[in-house]
């Protein structure tokens, strides 16, 4: 019970701080919308090409926009040495990680939910037919992105070039999750149901989320204190 | 059982020993002033006692327990070089946040009480980023005392404080000591620290050069310990 309460306290604190400054979410929203709009003018793809590139384009945009949010996760604790106060507080590393990951999930998810209709409009894609399956895949992919981004944000928090280092570490780690999410998203937009021949990708994405969530919950204390 | 005990603590940065076989004890009600030149290892030692980093060798105990244990952390208050409060939150939100993290029975009430005690109740809803330096420092003091810790670890607590913040901190520390709580502080502000200290430890290049009770000589002449025990 304490774990859950502390998790929610941390998540609320991060969301409140971000919504007051809007530092990360504004940058991520602007980035994702500008990229989607520019690509639609640059390539002017046909219907079949759009379906084939949809998964890749969306998840590349989400991964890059997400990094803008995730990089700030522990960097937010650096001014005023706030990280010291969190490390000194009687909360578990797991609760601290999960609270931050939840806040990041909400922020990255909000960016995705705003940019998905933009994608639909500018690429003339009808994704609403499989909306629930698509949201499910978005949630799984976003959680994978969030977990890896949050733990690497903690790992690089004391590095001077953390804005450069975090993405360099995060993207290679994300390859399995992004590949799965891209393939599943592409097939859903093509009108195929979730499961069937895509089940292996779905399993890979779920396994990725479970494994890295468990590892991060256990490792955060070591990452921060040694 | 000592409130704070460091037993043969070593800390290495690469091959360089920042702390060398440090042995220290502070009992309940003691105020231990850790003094020494820049780079002597005061902050490193305090951070190990606070559980922010681990000793290379030796061990630290707070009331007989590891500093990283949850229950131990509940009994420790910390003021470091930064104020450790969030600029984007109000004073009340900051203290309520830490009240919840320390699982206080009524975080809002505790926060209001400490805002009053530090003279910040009238600006409780103001964002910290709009506060003056002195107000921010008083809020940092309130955060450290909020959960009534049994052990207070203070790293250069008087540095850059304005007069009012110094007065607030000294009053709160005196009250804490009178209640039998333990204070360990690193400091260069010898006059303020030696007014409060019951014990003094001088660190020199990572080693304890002197450790003992604060004597009248020290209070009368803050440079006395350096003059007698510090190597050139």
Written account of the structure:
The complex is a heterodimer of chains A (226) and B (232). Chain A is an all-alpha fold and 226 residues long. Chain A has helices spanning 2-21, 23-43, 47-70, 72-75, 82-88, 93-122, 131-155, 162-189, 199-225. In chain A, helix 3 (47-70) runs parallel beside helix 7 (131-155) and helix 6 packs across helix 9 (199-225). The longest helix of chain A has 30 residues, at 93-122. The two termini of chain A are 27 Å apart. The model of chain A has no long low-confidence stretch (mean pLDDT 92). With 232 residues, chain B is of the alpha/beta class. Chain B has a single domain, classed as 3-Layer(aba) Sandwich (Rossmann fold). Chain B has helices at residues 42-49, 70-74, 91-101, 107-117, 133-145, 163-178, 190-196, 216-220, 224-229, and strands spanning 4-13, 16-26, 31-36, 57-62, 76-79, 151-155, 182-186, 199-204, 207-213. Classes of the chains: A mainly alpha (226), B alpha/beta (232). Chain A binds chain B through residues 2, 5-6, 9, 13, 16-17, 20-21, 79-82, 84-92, 221, 225-226, and chain B through 50-54, 68, 70-71, 73-74, 76, 78, 80-89, 93, 97-98, 100-103, 127, 143.
Molecular shape of chain A? globular
The tally of strands of chain A reads 0
- Rounded mean pLDDT of chain B is 91
Strand order in the largest sheet of chain B: 5-6-7-3-8-9
Mean pLDDT of chain A: 92
Write the CATH homologous superfamily of chain B: P-loop containing nucleotide triphosphate hydrolases
Sheet with most strands of chain B: 6 strands, mixed
Secondary structure tally, helices of chain A = 9
The CATH topology of chain B is: Rossmann fold
The N- and C-terminal alpha carbons of chain A lie at a distance of 27 Å
Secondary structure tally: strands of chain B = 9
Q: Which sheet architecture does the biggest sheet of chain A show?
A: none
CATH architectural group of chain B: 3-Layer(aba) Sandwich
Question: What is the largest interface, and how many residues per chain?
Answer: A-B, 25 and 31 residues
CATH secondary-structure class of chain B: Alpha Beta
